[in-house]
């Protein structure tokens, strides 16, 4: 569930680790980011405000994930309304250092290259969102960015998208709206 939400909501690891049950709206299909987990050098975890005011946000997730989110809440999340959405095997808070071993193991089991980092799911999700038509402003809101410069880093051109752009331009020409002449 952590990987699915990372890819389809584009939340940062610290934002995902800080999520509570009350941050999930099953009817509205949203995840609300109110805080982000941070770790001190001595290993203590604490929640802090997101990087900027734009970081406090609600992000929609696809309806196709509803069953998986519901099942995760029923079987894996901490019990109380304020319980963490993601916990370790003994019920403790999710830690980046402990998660890394699980990430490497899952990545290898899926046959995915060693070069794929967890944060790359944020790039993937935002590339997918832009491919289905999200504007830079919409991406900024989903990512919790206050500047377009930061959002543009996460927009990657894909060959499929390039083909779709060319096909739509061709349709404009065929329909007489492209301004191209004989």
From TrEMBL:
Swiss-Prot/TrEMBL keywords: DNA recombination
Domain of life of the native organism: Bacteria
Protein name: Site-specific integrase
GO terms, biological process: DNA integration; DNA recombination
Record InterPro entries: DNA_brk_join_enz, Integrase-like_cat_sf, Integrase_catalytic, Tyrosine_recombinase_XerCD
Annotated GO MF terms: DNA binding
Organism: Streptomyces odorifer
Residue intervals of the Tyr recombinase domain: 1-167
One Pfam family this sequence matches: Phage_integrase
Signal peptide: none
